[in-house]
């Protein structure tokens, strides 16, 4: 990829400071602060309507904050000398002019920013659109538009990337491709912010996760920290005396749920402690395993009470 080895002149640290956006009675973004460092993939995750897109739009000056600011290498986006070299953004893949070909779209953007036209062809190749480059964007699928949007975001070889749901509309191969692309962009020293409302899309890609709910940051931590702090360890235990074991565990302050097949799901004691208790009580265990805590569980636990009621429906 272009620019991988050269020293970057643009500082990629991005500081979002107390950003707030109100639309009438709705506070879409409510005092959001975070910092993006070079070389890190930051997952920006939250339920529908949490305020991810609005935050990202404000970061590049597409929406005006009610209060707060975003500084890119110490300056607001509008004051950057070469914005496309500082921040590449994919915010709305549908916004591309439908009558132009993919190649014309990129060449037009390149020309208006003083970037050589050859860079457009290089990027079309990289995002897998070389064969479709001369077709009108009108005929592109959503996944193809996302690829074109990504190429546009990368035109200026930017130090930071803001990508709003880039995997939306991509096929499984596309999703795998985008994961490895984001990792390699970060390895080259770029700061990456990538949003999704699906933890599965970010779990294997992000180093850090910024979790948003109802316009507020609920967590900003590394994937490992988030897992240890928020996921609950469960032990699955099977015995021929489930009633006795359940009572014994409850007497030792464990939370126990009995499943229809008779296995017990235990929250509290570790598998070793359960084995020792059962042994002393003369209860035989057929199975006693720790069920790995998933990032999805941690995310759900965090956002459970922070889904925004969506118009015409109940809170999700
Ligand atoms: N132009 C607007 N006018 C009025 N309300 C808006 C506008 N843009 C966003 N909102 C509201 O702000 C809130 C945050 O929306 P936003 O699109 O930023 O959330 P999101 O986290 O990106 O959601 P999704 O995952 O669904 O894309 C929502 O309640 C939304 O309805």
From TrEMBL:
Residues 14-239 form the ABC transporter domain. The keyword rRNA processing does not apply. It holds the Pfam family ABC_tran. InterPro entries: AAA+_ATPase, ABC_transporter-like_ATP-bd, ABC_transporter-like_CS, P-loop_NTPase. One of its GO terms (molecular function) is ATP binding. Belongs to the ABC transporter superfamily. This is Putative ABC transporter ATP-binding protein.
């Amino acid at each position: 990829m272009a620019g991988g080895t050269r020293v970057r002149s643009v500082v990629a640290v991005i500081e979002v400071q107390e950003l707030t956006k109100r639309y009438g009675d709705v506070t879409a973004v409510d005092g959001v602060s975070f910092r993006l460092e070079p070389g890190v993939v930051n997952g920006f995750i939250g339920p529908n309507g949490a305020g991810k897109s609005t935050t990202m739009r404000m970061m590049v000056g597409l929406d005006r904050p009610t209060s707060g600011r975003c500084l890119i290498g110490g300056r607001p986006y509008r004051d950057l000398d070469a914005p496309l070299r500082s921040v590449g953004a994919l915010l709305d893949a549908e916004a591309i002019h439908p009558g132009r070909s993919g190649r014309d779209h990129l060449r037009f953007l390149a020309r208006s920013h003083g970037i050589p036209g050859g860079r457009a062809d290089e990027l079309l190749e990289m995002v897998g659109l070389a064969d479709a480059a001369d077709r009108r964007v009108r005929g592109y699928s959503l996944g193809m538009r996302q690829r074109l949007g990504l190429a546009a975001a990368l035109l200026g070889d930017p130090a930071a990337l803001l990508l709003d749901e880039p995997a939306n509309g991509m096929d499984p191969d596309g999703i795998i491709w985008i994961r490895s692309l984001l990792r390699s962009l970060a390895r080259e020293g770029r700061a990456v912010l990538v949003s999704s409302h699906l933890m599965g899309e970010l779990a294997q890609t992000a180093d850090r996760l910024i979790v948003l709910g109802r316009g507020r940051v609920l967590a900003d931590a590394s994937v490992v920290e988030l897992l240890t702090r928020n996921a609950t360890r469960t032990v699955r235990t099977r015995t021929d005396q489930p009633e006795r074991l359940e009572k014994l565990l409850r007497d030792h302050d464990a939370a126990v749920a009995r499943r229809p097949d008779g296995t017990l799901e235990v929250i509290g004691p570790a598998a070793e402690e359960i084995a020792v208790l059962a042994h002393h009580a003369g209860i035989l265990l057929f199975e006693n395993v720790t069920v790995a805590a998933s990032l999805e569980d941690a995310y759900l636990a965090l956002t459970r009470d922070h889904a925004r009621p969506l118009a015409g429906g109940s809170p999700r």
